[in-house]
Description:
Elements lengths: L13 H15 L16 H21 L5 H15 L11 H6 L5 H10 L5 H7 L21 H27 L11 H4 L1 H29 L3 H15 L6 H4 L6 H5 L3 H15 L3 H17 L3 H11 L6 H4 L6 H5 L3 H15 L3 H59 L5 H23 L3
Helix pairs in contact: 2-6, 10-13, 15-18, 19-20
Amino acid sequence: MSEKKPKQNGEIDAFVKALLNKKTEMALNKDSQPEREDVSPAMTPVERQSAEKTMSSALDLLRKERGQLTIEEEEEKYRREQKEDGTHIEEVEDFTTDSIHQDARVDEQMIQSIYSSIELDDPKKAEKETPKRKPLKKVRSARPKKKKETPEAVKKEKAETAKDKTKDETEKKAKAKKPEKPEAVEPSFFRKNLKWFLAGIAVFALLLGAYTYKVVVYDPANITTEAQEQTYQKLVEYADEWDMLSDAEKMELIDYEPAYNELLEKQKTRLNTYFEEQTGDSFVKQLEALKALKATQEDETKPEYQQLVAFVSNWSTKPDEEKAQIVHYKDAFNGLSAALQQKIDQICMEQAGKNFNTLAAEEQAKLDQASQAAQEAQAAANEQRARIQSQIDELHAQLNDAMTYKADLEAQQAAGEDVGAMIATNDQTIAYLNEQIAALQATLP
């Protein structure tokens, strides 16, 4: 490999060229070189990885400062030149500082000399100062025989390189998207005591609700006043003496209705139960009955009611013409209260076995029937009168003709004609017509 074509434009410095030559020599003389024993203890994987990253980054930075290409770019350029010459050593993929560490024939002294040549005292510091770059890929062991690359192999190599770059970019994007862990923030005083604040608010709300319930709900519903207690005791006394009270005394309960409405619900319940035990009906039912009785008593003094009672009291002895007058009392009956109407119906049932409305309907039907008969009779009379009048008119016309004929006969007799017999006959006709007219006039309705 000593016949290698030198690099164009002098872009590969002596240091890198020595590394490449060393690597090439090691690959060609792999079988002939004896294995070297490790002089110094092996580095741990973490130390080795850190050293690789530091050395690779430092070399790339140093070369950029000198205006040179990075090692990776130099390797790619070297491969292209070898392909153009047609002869090259068997490819050692991705020749980097990482491949030097992986080669067992490269001892630690060589690595230390490289570190000293680039003047790195603190690898960690150099790593911080240098820009981050993607991890270096491991190279495969050099093959003993030379092999000329084909276009298919070049295409395959480029595809694998593009695939690796895509994978590295995906990993970088995933790391960039990963949210950083927020720094721990010292909780405020309010956050530390939040549960106590909430507990205090809950206790305050509970106390406020209890006070509101006591004032608004419990006290009005359970605590009786002196006036309510007096009303309750007075109504109990009415229930105890119910059977001994007169109607007028019972009517006094109507005046206690407003006071009863002011009682507590539990007092009303006990009072209704006690009234039902003593009188047979609850206080509410007894009060309704008394109010109805009072309304009835007040209505009985009305003149309309008194007149209606007088009319139906002797119904069974009234003539038909007088019974027909009941239809004129319908408006008075409808104006009475329900209690008074019931009393009127009771009297009608005793007299005729029917209520007031039934009797009034029957008499109305009779009147309607009589009216209809009268109308029919009047119509018949009118028809007969018209017929008789027609006959009379016809007789009057004949009588007029007879009278005219008589005047002509008399004129002829005065002229000397013998018309005496004709005059006598005409006079008889006139007399007959007058008799007929008089008879028909006498039959006119």
